[in-house]
Amino acid sequence: MALAGLGLTRTFHQGETTVRAVDGVSLTVDAGELVVVNGPSGSGKSTLLHLLGGLDRPDAGRVLLEGEDLSRLTERQLALVRRRRIGFLLQFFSLLPTLTVLENVALPLLLDGASHARARAEEALRRTGVAQRRAHRPGTLSGGEQQRAALARAIVTNPAVLLADEPTGSLDSASGQRIFELLREVAADTGVIVVSHDPRAAGYADRVVHLADGRVVVPEPHAPLASSRPR
Ligand code: ADP
Ligand code: MG
User: Fold this and answer.
1) Is the distance from the beta carbon of residue 5 to the nearest atom of ligand 1 less than 6 Å?
2) Is the whole-model pTM more than 0.85?
3) What is the pLDDT of residue 124?
4) Which residues contact 173 (CB under 8 A, 6 or more apart)?
5) Is the residue at 211 inside a domain?
6) Quick check: CB of 146 below 6 Å from ligand 1?
7) Which terminal Cβ of the chain has fewer Cβ within 10 Å, N or C?
8) Which residues surround ligand 2, an ion (CB under 5 A)?
């Protein structure tokens, strides 16, 4: 098991009201598996991803990354685990504009003093098909290329899991499809969780999990199926 969220709950206080953004959710992903999480806006998808990735801590429940309970880690240890074992891909690429593409991708390795940072960054860029852009600044790349550079940065450390939050949300159709194809390839040896309401996402998934009001729901079957069910 690459990652397991067990009984996760996260409550936010907005003035007088309390929002239970994630309400008793369990979700696991194995190495080699791609799980898509979908659900309407505000259903708790991003909050769940933050909990799973150790960016936020649950009020109740546990997150096990490669069997290690994240709640037992200090903030400093958690920061290291995030950097080394978890890859994040977000809707906006968040590449540093003054660094080259190669420098952006090498950065997580350089922060750790890892050896062969440059060669490993080039290899990651080859995997995502943007190695020819390595010496450019991100601002000169298309949106699709920037997202593929961001994906290279997310996988450069060879993480146990890759967590993606609406990774195609700001891309044109063809660029979005390329990202899904690459996420599928990454899932060959990594656990991948993709939060998306892109209707194409399910076509790349081993499993789709639906969220509504912070809970995992089993979607209603379509009307023709429902009417043919024995009563
Ligand atoms: P989604 O990603 O599915 O659109 P979110 O996880 O962003 O949903 O949000 C779920 C609910 O939690 C929403 O009602 C949102 O307003 C609330 N929420 C999320 N983050 C915070 C926060 N940091 N503070 C207060 N409320 C929050
Ligand atoms: Mg969201």
Assistant:
1) no
2) yes
3) 98
4) none
5) yes
6) no
7) C
8) 45-46
